Amino acid sequence: MKKIFKMIGLSFILSLVFIGFAQDTQATDMAMEASVVHAAQHMSFGHYLVDSHGRTLYVVVNGDETVPCEGECATAWPPYTEESMSMMEGDAMGDSSEEMSDSSEMMGEEIDAMLIGTVMREDGTTQITYNGYPLYYFVGDVEAGQVNCQAIANFGGTWYILSPNGEINTTTN
């Protein structure tokens, strides 16, 4: 009988340890999610999504449908992937240490972490999504706060910025 109580006690303790580990993992995942997408304010376009360095994030749609961006498209519009987050620091997309320009300011508290997700790309990388939309950079945006391709038709769709509420911002300059 004592053996059964010991087994139950051990099982209970292991369960608590596992639950604590799972909660720590969830907290780490949620902290990572909250840090990958931020909001900025632009004088012409209002609030929009940026990465942690203030680089503008875009989506591409044709009507109500998202458009896949592979090959040449992905060269001009690099996908925002988990793998690229560390690679983007200090590269051609702009120096990660730069502050955002006067036309934009970081406002990360507006982001809804429940809208952040991921999708597996054909090349095996994990792309960051917001409200189900895969996110991309534009190679012509070389500094934080630049929005050089809002409402531009290219590669089978139109490229837009997203509002922090997850809606496409169709404002044109």
Task: Explain what the structure shows.
With 173 residues, this protein is an alpha+beta fold. The protein has two domains: 1-36; 38-169, no CATH class. 27% of the residues lie in helices and 23% in strands. The strands form three sheets. Strands 3, 4, 8, 9 and 10 form a five-stranded antiparallel sheet that branches. Strands 5-6-7 form a three-stranded antiparallel sheet, covered by helices on one side. A two-stranded antiparallel ribbon has the order 1-2. A hairpin with a 2-residue loop joins strand 6 (126-130) and strand 7 (133-134).
SSE diagram, text form:
Elements: H1 2-36, E1 38-42, E2 46-50, E3 58-62, E4 65-66, H2 72-76, H3 82-87, E5 116-120, E6 126-130, E7 133-134, E8 152-154, E9 157-162, E10 168-169
Antiparallel strand pairs: 1-2, 3-4, 3-9, 5-6, 6-7, 8-9, 9-10
Keyphrases for this structure?
173 residues; five-stranded antiparallel sheet; three-stranded antiparallel sheet; 23% strand; alpha+beta
Quick synopsis:
With 173 residues, the chain is an alpha+beta fold. It has three helices and ten strands; from the N terminus they run αββββααββββββ. Strands 3, 4, 8, 9 and 10 form a five-stranded antiparallel beta sheet that branches.
Number of strands: 10
Give the quaternary arrangement of the chains.
Answer: single chain
How many domains would you count in the coordinates? 2
Radius of gyration: 20 Å
Average pLDDT value?
A: 78
Strand count, sense and barrel status of the largest sheet are: 5 strands, antiparallel
N- to C-terminal separation? 77 Å
Portion in helices: 25-40%
**Strand portion:** 15-25%
